[in-house]
Amino acid sequence: MRGVKLMRWFRSLLLFCVCVSLSACVGIWPLGEKEPTALSLQVVTPTGSALPAASLTRPLLSLVVERPSAPSGLSGHSIWFASGPHQLTPFREHQWQTPLPEQLETYLQAYLSQSLSGVRVYLDRPGVSSDYRLTSELLQWHLDQTSQRLLVTLHAHLYQGERLLISWQWQHSEALREVTAPGLVQAGQVWMEKWFQQLERSLWPYLIPLE
C-alpha cells in the first residue's frame, strides 16, 4: 500500500514538472494575466514649417539621424510609470511594439526629410556619410502618477564632421487625458510632435553649406 502511494506521488510530481516545462516553452502567462498589448506612437506629418522662404535656394546638404541612446530600461519594450519617489514600475498589460529609441529614430528621420527643404536626411546605417550628424540621449520617459503627466528628459547634439556645433537639452511635461498606458502613449504623441517642431527650428540656422 505504501508503495502504491509512493508511485502515485511520483507520477503527480512528474506530471507537474512536465506541465511547468511546457508552460515555459510555449510562453504561457501566469494565471490571471494576459499577454501585454503592443502599443506604438504614430508617424508625425509636418504641419506648417516655420523655415524661411530663402531655404529653398540653399545647396543640397545631408544629415544623418542616429538612434537615441537610452538607459537599459528605456531601450527595451517596457513602458514605465513612477509608483513612488525614485521608483519606476513597468506596465504589466502593455508594452512597446518597437522600443522607443527605434521609434524616435525612424519618425524623426521621416519628419525632417519632409520639413527641411534642401536637406537629405538619412538613418545612420553602415556606409552612409553626411555633412551633418544628429545624436541624442533619451534620459527619462515615464508616467508620473503624482502629477498625472508624462515626464521626458532628452539631449541632442549636432555635429559637422567631427566638430560639435551645438547641444540642446529638453525637459518636457505633458498632461495625460487618462492615467493609463494608452493615455501615456497619447501624451507621448503630443510630446513627440512638439519636440520635432522645436528641433526643426533649432537645427535650421546651423545647416549651412560647407566651405
From TrEMBL:
InterPro entries: ABC_trans_aux
UniProt xrefs under Gene3D superfamilies: ABC-type transport auxiliary lipoprotein component (3.40.50.10610)
SUPFAM superfamilies documented for this protein: XCC0632-like
Domain of life of the source: Bacteria
ABC-type transport auxiliary lipoprotein component domain: residues covered: 49-190
Protein name: ABC-type transport auxiliary lipoprotein component domain-containing protein
Originating species: Nitrincola tapanii
